[in-house]
Amino acid sequence: MKVLVINCGSSSLKFQLIDAETEQLLFKGLCERIGIDGSQISYTATGKDKVTKVTPMPEHKTAVSLVLEALTESGVVKSLDEIDAVGHRIVHGGENFTKSVVINEDVVKAIEEVSDLAPLHNPANVIGIRACQDLMPGTPMVAVFDTAFHQTMPEEAYLYGLAYDIYKKYKIRRYGFHGTSHSYVSKKVAEIEGKPYDSLKTIVCHLGNGASVSAVKNGKCVDTSMGLTPLEGLIMGTRSGSIDPSVIDTLEKKMNLNTAGVMNVLNKESGVYGLSENISSDFRDLEDAYIEGNKDAIRAVDCFCYQVLKYIGAYTAAMNGVDCIAFTAGVGENSGFVRKLIIDRLGFLGVKCNDEANKVRGEEKLVSTEDSKVRVYVVPTNEELAIARDTYELLK
Ligand code: ADP
């Protein structure tokens, strides 16, 4: 079964074609600047050179049709009939979706109903579904939710300290994101360990531009750092992570901004970017500056690592212990430097870093020593493959 995986953002569309039986990646690419001047599509058919075309994409439907055109033009498929299914990444499933589902009109309506919880993401996801329905009528589609894996959290973990009535009326609660990644990585850890998934306590640190930590106990997510939206939790690339809610009101007054203006500050001008006095949101730049002794970079990276450390401590308590810790996503997979800063502070858990192994980049690897009490792994995430797997499972 050939599955087209679509991750539709407000101005971008990422895509992959995966043979779900062999799990082979056949084709991948990205449409950028949809609805903005200078839009372009770039793609790589496995084994061939990357192709980039600058071409107008006034809306998402044009982007999807360009993706389909690229698939046939590059010879990856002879005709669109060869695409058996489409798997859509959907950011917010609210409380409606605890697992992936085959898309029908009711599903689209339910995704739209929770759009106010993810106003930047869900409408774009629905546009992606509609565009595929128009251009590939009759092709079955599956929705895979970022929030679904976290729906197993107990009430004590997902409720905020707000009036219960507010939760009941408005569904204001912790949902968590990056669920597809946390699920994929925690399962992979069990596989590497050679132990049943439901027998392990694992903490997954998904550290990328967006970053979150989750606690997975006996195969179920019991807590995660992101909340109602992906703004809560860790300090991220440009996002503040958790702050005292009163900061918003204070900044409105001090900076003479409205709420939207402050939210922009919290989402786009904060995190390690803001903390480093705007050196960069990219950990490669921050790492270089840190090593040179740049105080701004040191401040930002140390604050980031401290937050990860605190979540690991908290989730060890939440699970009454931890067997494995996994690092994944851009920073988690590639930065031995950041990993070491965190692992070296886990002595209280009996964790020891294997400095040689920890030099690894983007590969599955045990990075703790043989006598470390908790095993620490680098596990590259693969959200697209996880989406293709779910799509295949539901439709085969
Ligand atoms: P997202 O999907 O949230 O945009 P990614 O998981 O792709 O983020 O992570 C992107 C981030 O990974 C980059 O901003 C960069 O900070 C970090 N990164 C990528 N490669 C490296 C590397 N070799 N060393 C350190 N950090 C890296």
TrEMBL record:
It catalyses: acetate + ATP = acetyl phosphate + ADP. It comes from the Bacteria. One of its GO terms (biological process) is acetate metabolic process. Keywords: ATP-binding, Cytoplasm, Kinase, Magnesium, Metal-binding, Nucleotide-binding, Transferase. It is found in: Cytoplasm. Its EC number is 2.7.2.1. Homodimer. This is Acetate kinase. It comes from Butyrivibrio fibrisolvens DSM 3071.
